[in-house]
Structure formats: C-alpha cells, structure tokens
Amino acid sequence: MSPGLVLVVGRNGVGKTNLLEALHVATQGFSPRTRNDAQLIRFGAAAAATSVRGTRDGTEVTARVVLAPPEAKRAEVNGSRLASPEQLRREFATLVFTPDRLTVVKGGPAARRAYFDRVLARLYPARAGLPHDYLGAVAQRNAALRRVQLRLADRRALEPWTAAVAALGAELAAVRGATLAALGPGFAERAGELGLPGAVLAYDPEGPTIEALEARLERDLERGTTGLGPHLDDIHVGSDARDLRQFGSQGEQRLAVLSLLLAEAELLPHRPLLLLDDVLSELDAGRRRLLADRISAAGQTVVTSTEAAALPVEPAQVIHVEHGQAV
After folding, report:
1. What is the pTM of this model?
2. Of 180, 320, 167, which Cα lies nearest the Cα of 264?
3. What residue segments make up the domains of the chain, in order of their start?
4. 257-286: per-residue pLDDT in tens?
C-alpha cells in the first residue's frame, strides 16, 4: 500500500477536478483554473469556504480559505488569519497537474515565464518577490516613458527606473537561470522514464544593462514600453532538438508538464502535496507503474481517474465522487 496516495474515482464531469481545486485553494489561496474568485462559489450561493487538516513534522496543522464577496478573501492557518491569502504559498508547497496546464508548453512565452517564476519562488523563497519587484520597475519605467513622450517630464525622469530595471532584470535573469539549471537534470530523467527522450530546458540568462537600455531609448520612447529585459524572455522546452510548443504532440506536451512537476517535487526541501488530475489516461501500463512509483515516494498525492484499475498500486484511500459529492 502507498501510504500517502489518495485515488479519487468517478465518471467524467462529476466533480473530481473540483475536489482538487478546493485542495489547491485551501493550501495556496487561489485556484489553478481561474483567477476570478466569483467562479469558485456555487451557483446561487453567497459564499464558499474550503479547509484542510493534516500533520507537518508531527504537528497538526489546519488551513482554511473563505470567499464571501464583497469582503476580501480570507485565509487562516491554525485559526489565525493571514495578512493575505498569498502567504499560504509560504506555508504549504502544493503542485498541481491539470489538463489546462499544458499552456506551460503549448502557450505563449508569458505562460512559461509565470510558471518558472513560481518554481523560482518555491526553490528560492528569499527571492520570491523578485519577479514582482522587477515588473514593478518596468511598469514605472513605462509610465515615465509615456510622460516623456507626452512632454510631461524630462528624460532625466527615466534614469532611476532604467537603473532599477537593469539591476533587478539582471538579478531575475540570473535566478531564473539557476532555477532552470536546478530543474533541468530531473526534468530530463523523469521525462525519459515516461517516454519523452532527450528532454531539455534552455534559457539564456542575459539581463539588461543600463547601456543596452539607453541604446534603444528612442525606440522605447516611440512605443512607450520597455523593449528589453526578462519580462520578454522565453524558456525553451524541448525533446530531441524539437521545440515541443511547435512540434510536440499533445501527449508529449502532457508528459513534459508532468515531468516538470515531478522534477520540482524532488527539489523542494519538504515533500509537497501533489494534485494530479487525469494523468493516467494517456499512459501505457508500464509508464503508469513508473509514475505510481514516483508519486508514492513523493509524499501526499491525490490522483483522479475514471477507473480505479488505472492506478497500478494500492492507494491508502479511495474516494468515489458522484454528482459533486464524495461517497
């Protein structure tokens, strides 16, 4: 028996994904599916709440998130209210795979930047605010560019924000590079096991300099935006010299995202909560066994499936979902 493995079984459309979503909201403060909190409340209801209870280092811990518009979303740990729901991410590590996470590979560069910056925050907690700080500096520089463009400010108003973008951009590019370097070997190994040979992550961590930003100042002024820096970078996710965004099948893209999640789980200092939605359906029996062995050793894992027989190991618990209810 796999002590940390929970299998959620039910037909398509009965609410299995909703259960995983509730666990993610309770431990991370937001949904992996939508950023519109109103969509998390049952039709006809005025409020919603989700909570979890477990043990961490031998001590019982509880987390709860309450949605009651128009009040602000509220998060609690062990009965104490947090300053913001985002603080849950510092308390708990939760990694989720859902079919819509394929945008990490098949979507545009912004989806990959956002994903890997979240990985950065979990691997380097002290630098978690760096992407936000950098984007703030870019926004301030863009605002200054538009003021200069409209002749409401002198070009000297750009200087402090150019310096900030250069400094924070160089730091962000370097930490992103370290994140990809740490993640790459495990990603390649897990992907190879699951049938995606030659998997690779590639990123050129070259941050902007003051000189480079000033060299393109006229173009930035014309457009009113900063056209250089890691807010425009992309991360290559490939297999055997193929860019999986352009030349990967949907099955290969699924394997890539799943491999990224497994590789990250192995790097975290504490075992995360893994939420895996519909990962078994496109794997053959041998790869299901490999995946089951990996997640059995990863810590607490919740897997959904339409059939209990799809999981080749005995879980610690089986939850059947019917019509939105666990039975």
Report:
1. 0.90
2. 180
3. 115-245
4. 999 999 999 999 888 999 999 898 888 888
